[in-house]
Amino acid sequence: MSVRDAGPPIALLVIVVVLSLLSPQFRTTGNALNILDAAAVLAVVTCGTTFVLLLGSIDLSAAGVMGASSLVVAVLVENSRNNLDLGILGILIAVVLAAALGCVSGLLVVLLKVPSFMTTLGVSAIGLGIATLVFDGVQPGVVDPSLRSWATGRLLGLTYLTWIAVVCVLIAWFVQRYTRLGRYAMAIGGAEEVLALSGVRVGPYKVAVFTMAGAFYGLGAVMVTSQLGSGLVQSGASYTFASITAAVVGGTLLVGGRGGVLHSTVGVLLLTVLTNGLVLIGVSPYVQGGVQGLIVVVAVAVAAAPLRHRNQVVK
Predict the structure, then answer these.
(1) What is the pTM of this model?
(2) DSSP string covering 108-128, please?
């Protein structure tokens, strides 16, 4: 582990110690469990964002993709608006829809050579359009007891959502560490031209990464729907920026080729701990936003300092 890799975990530890000294309530077991539960959805969404960042690309589609998946799952499982009750099949359809939208982003990037932040922003708008059409002026409430139990049921003190997030992080780490897709994603972000010259067709791997990211967003949307108890067009509104922030704070570079799922997970915990602690010590929500923004700027500046020559070209 390099000094740069050790930075985010050390920062997390320092923040935990400081907040524990400032707030006795922060250092309780119950609050620790609350922090893990609060980090669950962001951790899943950040898994998808991380792989796109490893490519050296930016994905701004999470909000729209999550909105579409949230409404679709809400009307396909047992709900207050229609007679459908597809159960687990409804959840799978919502995740597949999100993966399809991610695939569209990847195809546009690869085939049309359009910058990723533009294509994904457009796909986000498509997702929000789908969500609005499905919403149709009536918010569907989720009645399905199985899906609702994701947010209410507990195992070893943690909600099922948290255990789902743990499984997702482990799967994402395995993909990054032990599969060709994960290794090539890292290599594309580090030196795409060299990889292409070695005979690897990078296009299909880029599309696969965006598709996988979409699937993570879709699952995150299902988790949010379980928490809210209804489908919501804006269910993913805060996660686009938050997931990129968490990944960057954890040590995944915006220019690609460095970092990974475990780095980003540390970033998720750091942001969640910071938000929780600032609330407990009575800091104004407006100040909280400023503090988080400052942390992002500092993290990006520190990470990018040794790589200024690569930052001359933004993918």
Answers:
(1) 0.89
(2) HHHHH---HHHHHHHHHHHHH
